[in-house]
Amino acid sequence: MSLNLAxxxxxxxxxxxxxxxxxxxxxxxxxxxxxxxxxxxxLDLGCAGGRNAYWLARQGFDLYALDAxxxxxxxxxxxLRPYLGQAVLQRVLLGxxxxxxxxxxxxxxxxLAFGVLHFAQSRAEFDRALKEITRVTKxxxxxxxxxxxxxxxxxxxxxxxxxxxxxxxxxxxxxxxMLEPAQLDQWVGEWGFExxxxxxEITTPTERGWRTTVRGQYVLxx
Length: 222
Description:
Elements: H1 14-21, H2 27-33, E1 41-45, H3 51-59, E2 62-67, H4 70-84, H5 88-91, E3 92-94, E4 108-114, H6 123-136, E5 137-148, E6 160-161, E7 167-169, E8 175-177, H7 181-189, E9 193-195, E10 200-205, E11 210-220
Parallel strand pairs: 1-2, 1-4, 2-3, 4-5
Antiparallel strand pairs: 5-11, 6-7, 7-8, 9-11, 10-11
């Protein structure tokens, strides 16, 4: 979830881990994968507390998961151990979304990237992540993702656009890439992904404001 591999960040706090772990699995993922073969190999990128990985493990998918927070990784490993056994140590990994070198080319039938790509702090970092996602996805494989729209008001304050287009500054001082649906289709399309369905959005309240989430489903084409 977080891109910061250091300890003592907000992502390491037990309360934050529980918050993400207790969320239900993504409804689009469930709808898409409910009819898929359990032999399908899936990467849950930015797995957080395992809300999606837990569902995938219970369904018997050939699952791998990755997050940049030790606390999230450990919590997810504990949840999945009854299904994956000791293999969970090789299946749930610590790492960054823009460095998937632990995985070979063309490994995954499906890559999930829910609420993670917007943590890129520049277009270059965003593109590095997309390059890695493209590399590890099989031709004809699917990418399901979501990220924040710049129309979000996450901290009770209007987001400020930085000197770099589509990179916004939050009240915390952290930069994040945020895109509208057409922008997301364009950026992802530059790496060979075509939409499977119209990219949509959903707005939900937060503790201090609201979050508008852009949601896309793509297939990797030649």
